[in-house]
Amino acid sequence: MKSTFTDDMIESFFGRFQSFQTSGSMAFKPGLERMEFVDQMAGHPHRKYRTVHVAGTNGKGSVSNMLASALAATGLKVGLYTSPHILGVRERARVIDAGGVRLIGRDALGEIISRWGDTYINIGLSFFEVTTCIAFEWFAVEGVDVAVIETGLGGRMDSTNIITPELSVITNIGYDHCDILGNTLGEIAYEKAGIIKPLIPVVVGESHPETDPVFERKTLYTNLPEAEFMGDRGRIMSLLRFADKTVPAGWEHADGILSAMDLQGPCQVKNLRTVMTALQVLGVTPDAPVLEAVEHTASRMDFHGRWERLAVADTYEVIADIGHNEHGLRLNFARLSEIAAGGTKLVIVYGSVSDKDVDAVLRLIPREAELVIFTNADNHRALPAAEAAKRYEADCAEVGCEPCRHVVCQTVASAVETALAEALQARTLIYIGGSTYVVSEAVRCFPDCE
Length: 450
Fold this sequence. Notes:
By secondary structure, the chain is α/β, with parallel strands linked by helices. It contains 20 helices and 14 strands.
């Protein structure tokens, strides 16, 4: 039966709200008062199921999807709320069970909007607050056993932070959204640590001398009122685990899992360790079905944009990744350098938004690249491709090196076309990245991937 709530109706409704994807930091509304008010009106839907809360600078999406896939393999009905979306807003809320993965249906979305849409508008919620409310409500309607909830930005003031989870996960800390979260790793860690709750265990994916004390103090101070129940300081601190200092159950299978995973990319070894540590804290045995679910996360969860292979042909392979800041792209570009050093021709399609530290990223572009194609997505936040190219040339001059051969393409589609033409004569890896928006448009150039 055809849905009565159409994609045009979905687009029209969500177009009423400012989103970070289109408006940047102007769309960020700090404070939880609006969410708490609407949540109370709705009867606190997120209290009807267990939750796992995931924050961090990079890797949140991969970790959240792997956790959801693994939990579903234990027989649970699992909700998953993530952002941003690649192809459509319905991707943000998914349910996975024995029947597979489902995006929130158009009619289910329409029903929630018919009941709560006017309230969302009148209270002045942001786009992210609206999608969060809808996801929490839908998961309750679906009767999920547990939901994995990814923060949007930060943690302390993030719309999702009204939940009390069974486990909080913080993947890592890097420089991103500094205008909102702070200019030091410690300040950013403080905002992410805002998801730490009393008596709730915490897994931190990557330890760092500048951020570890932040998580330790937050864990201690959050639990001080419960000290008489917890005993000494050591027992309080046992709530906090650093994944990279832990050997989780099943880690002896890590090499085999990583080689079989359909989520590839240099970051996944750290993400996998974080996931397996989280599963251990949750009491999940890493048996064969769970490990297989982790290995096939991308296909099971219909998960896009993480070192995703968009196309393979006789002379080329196309990889796309939404890594968009220095912390994430440093790993990606280092891997690309290794591949190019092995004799593969490297072509990079790069575009960014204007409110990122673009110069820090441009300095990382592999010198082994045969061609760098600067482009921009169809988004008013996008950094114009010509400006990116000019800044790249200036950055190269500043460090005294010759820039790679580079061109400017005004659309992502024309950049993809140029990259494919470059790959006709020799074995070529085409890497597309720099922003979610560039990847989103690039995916549409390869219909088999949608």
